[in-house]
Amino acid sequence: MSPFHCLLLRFGRNRVNSFHLSHSLATATNILDSNDKIIATRISNCNNLHHLDQIYAQIIRNYFLELYPVQFHWNNIIRSYTRLNSPSNALHVYITMSRTGVRPDTFTLPIVLKAICQVLNYVVARQLHGIAIKLGLETNMYCESGFISLYAKAGEFENARKVFEQNSERKLGSWNAIIAGLSQGGRAKEAIEVFLELRESGLQPDDVTMVSVTSACGSLGDLDLASQLHKCVFQAKEMERSDLLMMNSLIDMYGKCGKTDLAYRVFSRMKERNVSSWTSMIVGYAMHGYVRDAVECFHCMREAGVRPNHVTFIGVLSACVHGGMVKEGKYYFNMMKNEYGITPMLQHYGCMVDLLGRAGLFEEARGTIEGMSMKPNVVIWGCLMGACEKHGHVKMGEWVAKHLQQLEPWNDGVYVVLSNIYASNDMWEEVRRIRAIMKERKLAKIPAYSLSTSSY
């Protein structure tokens, strides 16, 4: 009796679905009689993570990989796990592959790098980089761009630059990786500078490049640059052929630059819109105080049958904050939870605390904070502290200050705002006490720092 028939008997009465198991066994039996392309196709076409787990854990790991100890099949399984959004399993297979003595090849490393970028396992990443250097694959176009992305996500921009600059004949993928890494890492100006270097190199940017660059431009709020980039976008891909991601990036860029009219022009010409398209418009309107436009856009989005996500609601709630729309803010906050089943995040709570605090509804703001499912951060406390300063609320200000001092004992902004609250109530003895504490602890006011500044 073959090992596969034994396996069938062993699992015939357990919880494993008989159809899936029979299919797995039939697949495995056929695998042994098929060529490599058929093997690859059957693994690649597996669209069920549980089914793939069964194939790998019960059959492939025990029999197939021992009979076919080549990189090709290992790569396929790793790729399949990554494709099914299971990067941890992909890394586990790679580690198992290494322990069996199978050396990675030019295809293995990029696949594993993609999984590492998802789970941000920098220990394995550095080991992989060492292997790439040892195998002479560090300048492989896929490996190179993968390591650049990984180091940038880790905030190790110097290492990302080193990998990028070591190859004078770098491909567009490496340029895209460094530009995206800098843009997403809050280094928008550097991202633009690298983009200009790319243009001078003679390589033509593609839509991937332009998505990253427009995002960087939006962060800078540079309208002149935005206009130039708009032209570059359609040099990379004509508007009729432009994909959603690129068009959404233009909307986002113009919205952040304050040109919501240009953002809407792009939006209105789109043949297809997704949640990101609508959300970019809503956030753009909210960011610049166009409250009615933001709310109207949100209602149009719902009428169009597009389901809002957590970012959409950040935009809507931000609009309510700008407009002082307490009733509407509560309505949308409850809609998010009850109608769409979206669990509030720190940003949503921050908007609500800011909204209630500005309106002087301190007990409701306090209740919102105490009802949070996670610990409030300094921004949330800062919103309420700013409201206390605005309304001169001493008792609440003292309560908030205690929490802020626990989170950031070095932050003099807490003491400054508390001192201002005391001063607005003519409590000069308390003002002198706060200043004495600051002097004793050698705290100096940080220029342009304000606890009341909301990032929502």
TrEMBL record:
Keywords: Repeat. PPR repeats lie at residues 70-104, 171-205, 243-273, 274-308. Signal peptide: none annotated. It holds the Pfam family PPR. GO terms for molecular function: RNA binding. GO terms for biological process: RNA modification. PROSITE patterns: PPR. Gene3D superfamilies: Tetratricopeptide repeat domain. This is Pentatricopeptide repeat-containing protein. It comes from Solanum commersonii (Commerson's wild potato).
